[in-house]
Amino acid sequence: MFVHNKKEGHHLKQYTIPALDVSAGVEAKAYVDTLTKPIGSLGKLEEIVITLAEIQGRKQPSINRLGVLVFAADHGIVEEGISAFPQLVTRQMVQNMAVGGAAINVFSRQQQAEFSLVDVGVMGESFSAPVKDRKIRQGSENFLRTEAMTQEEVEKALEIGYEEAMALFEKGVDFLVVGEVGIGNTTTSSAVVAAITGLDPEELVGYGTGISSKQHLHKITVVREALALHQPNSSDGYDVLRKVGGLELAAMVGAMLAAASKRVPIILDGFISTAAACVAETISQGATGYMLLGHQSMEPGHQKAFQYLGKEPILSLSMRLGEGTGAAVAFSIIQSAVLMINEMATFESAGVSGKN
């Protein structure tokens, strides 16, 4: 379905998000309360399974297969000296992931996930298989000087993200982690989250890959000046992405919207993933209802972003790697919740006496 956007003079895709099935959540809660345990004694596991019931629209949620979808791109803002690592590291990390050597590969194998790695804007020539070549351009522009992308590039990145997620669903994936690789993307995410929430960049900007205190102050200044220059519209995700976003971040948004439109639960990772979730919600209201928050990152902006979305992390392991790693690790906990509602006996079936 397409809607005409008069302001831009072209068509924007409309991502239709179904309403959560609240009655399925009520049924799930009632059923969980009949299981052989004191009411509420499995704490957050019970909350997780009720959320999943609302997402999947059934009393007893199920998991067939996890999909891990990683998008990679470079960022022009790296020119401003905001990262501890050179831009080339994006390329090197993609090469490491392609041969299965990154943390996300390890955790994906542990969870027997369907893993997909997509280049949407890494500097240099295209990679060979298994990296999917969906390169839109050679990195984003330096958004301290000019807009990060064109409107057309933003829309293309969203569409690629959408298509790549749909390709995983066709393979039987019914649970999704969306990860990323891109030197400079904590700066991009800080700008995106600041633009949407209205928070001061000082509250959001962290140390990323391990910059110095001096670089940290510079990074805050860079984000502040970029926002002052572009004045992104907080309620328009396309505008925010175009002005201060990144190619992989935009692709992540598209993948999240694909999942939400198909009632597929999304496990959010850290700061970059949650920044993408903030954008997804501005583009299609209700998208974040389909998201669980895997963990709490060490990045200060992450906590502000997930509080803005009204989410609570499943884990807090002092992680700050990105790639989708925290979300992939949290999947084990989610599996436990699903097994609980599907395999535990009820008081009645087990012949156990209930509470007096």
Describe the 3D structure.
The protein is built from 14 helices and nine strands. Helix 9 (237-244) packs across helix 11 (271-283). Residues 1-9 have low confidence and may be disordered. By secondary structure, it is an alpha/beta fold. The termini are far apart. Helices cover 47% and strands 12% of the residues. The strands form two sheets. The protein has a seven-stranded parallel β-sheet with strand order 5-4-3-6-7-8-9, with helices on both faces. The protein has helices spanning 22-32, 43-56, 88-98, 103-110, 151-170, 185-197, 201-204, 213-230, 237-244, 247-261, 271-283, 300-309, 325-343, 347-350; strands at 2-5, 10-13, 66-73, 114-121, 132-133, 175-181, 266-268, 291-295, 313-315. Helix 12 links the parallel strand 8 (291-295) and strand 9 (313-315). It folds into two domains: 13-61 and 341-350, 5,6-Dimethylbenzimidazole Phosphoribosyltransferase, Chain: A, domain 1, CATH 1.10.1610; 66-333, 3-Layer(aba) Sandwich (Rossmann fold), CATH 3.40.50.
Task: Compile the SSE list and pairings.
Blueprint: E1 2-5, E2 10-13, H1 22-32, H2 43-56, E3 66-73, H3 88-98, H4 103-110, E4 114-121, E5 132-133, H5 151-170, E6 175-181, H6 185-197, H7 201-204, H8 213-230, H9 237-244, H10 247-261, E7 266-268, H11 271-283, E8 291-295, H12 300-309, E9 313-315, H13 325-343, H14 347-350
Parallel strand pairs: 3-4, 3-6, 4-5, 6-7, 7-8, 8-9
Antiparallel strand pairs: 1-2
Helix pairs in contact: 1-2, 2-13, 5-9, 5-10, 6-8, 6-9, 6-11, 9-11, 10-11, 11-12
